[in-house]
Amino acid sequence: MKNSIPRNSGGHAFSLIEMLVVVTIIVLLLAFSTPALMRSMQSTRLTSVGDTIFGVISVAQQTAFAQNAPVELRFFKHGDEGFSDSPEYFRSYQLFKIVLLTEGIGANATVKESIVPVGNLVKFSDGIVITTDDELSPALSGAGLPDTKSGDGSSAGYSGVDGATYNALRFLTDGSCHKVGANATVSGATQATLTFQTLPTSFFTITYDINKEITTANLPNNFYTIQVDPYTGKARSYKPGF
């Protein structure tokens, strides 16, 4: 009895041309999908940073009320640490509690503000910044204050970046929110100058780092704006998407 030899049931291997066609289609699909994927990843990082800051504002307000002490939210401004010529944006933040210290006795007594860190420094995700443009972030406008830990003039302060500055919002125990300015001495007390802003100017904008100054003319389509009510300290957000 002869053994039957199975025959090929009509199947055949891919030809070189067919393989090239498949590879070309895959490359084209990747080329078209990559920009959308990158935008989606950027949008996720932007939303994450915005939502985190939104939550921190609520924490600052509640902490000021619960501990009966003003709480300051500092945003640190500096260039990208990996690129020496990068623009200066707000790239991190930290909360501080304000404590009044009395030095001296009687008529010679003076009062100074002391800050106590609340939590650790938080850096934004790569490529996400708060713009320093006065029209996009009026709540954080103005010359930045030097970032020093002990007032000794050292270049690296709480941000850990040499020469960094900060702009800040201070939440008071009555729920109100003020912009923080330079220290001033009044009646023997050295305290920060506080400015009560109007609601239309009490906001700042989070967006992408485009490696040049961000203005209303070149603001990316996707951004995250946070407005802080100066009367109540409560925050509102706006994110148009892309």
Topology (SSEs and partners):
Blueprint: H1 16-67, E1 71-78, E2 89-103, E3 110-123, E4 128-130, E5 145-146, E6 165-171, E7 177-186, E8 189-195, E9 203-208, E10 224-228, E11 235-238
Parallel strand pairs: 3-8
Antiparallel strand pairs: 1-2, 1-6, 2-3, 4-9, 5-6, 6-7, 7-8, 9-10, 10-11
> What proportion of the residues is helical, as a percent range?
10-25%
Structural class: alpha+beta
Low-confidence stretches: none
The chain-level mean pLDDT equals 83
Q: How far is the N terminus from the C terminus?
A: 75 Å
CATH architecture: 3-Layer(bab) Sandwich
* Number of beta strands: 11
What is the H/E order?
HEEEEEEEEEEE
Number of domains: 1
What is CATH's topology name? minor pseudopilin epsh fold
CATH class: Alpha Beta
Our count of helices gives 1
> Percent of residues in beta strands?
25-35%
Global morphology: elongated
Write down the oligomeric state: single chain
- Radius of gyration over all CA atoms, rounded: 27 Å
Q: Can you identify the CATH superfamily?
A: minor pseudopilin epsh domain
Taking strands numbered 1, 2, ... along the chain, how are they ordered across the largest sheet? 1-2-3-8-7-6
Please characterize this protein's 3D structure.
This protein is α+β, with helices and mostly antiparallel strands. The chain has a single domain, classed as minor pseudopilin epsh fold. The protein is 21% helix and 33% strand. It contains 1 helix and 11 strands, in the order H-E-E-E-E-E-E-E-E-E-E-E. The chain has one helix spanning 16-67; strands at 71-78, 89-103, 110-123, 128-130, 145-146, 165-171, 177-186, 189-195, 203-208, 224-228, 235-238. A 6-stranded mixed beta barrel has the order 1-2-3-8-7-6. The longest helix has 52 residues, at 16-67. The chain starts with 15 loop residues before the first helix and ends with a strand.
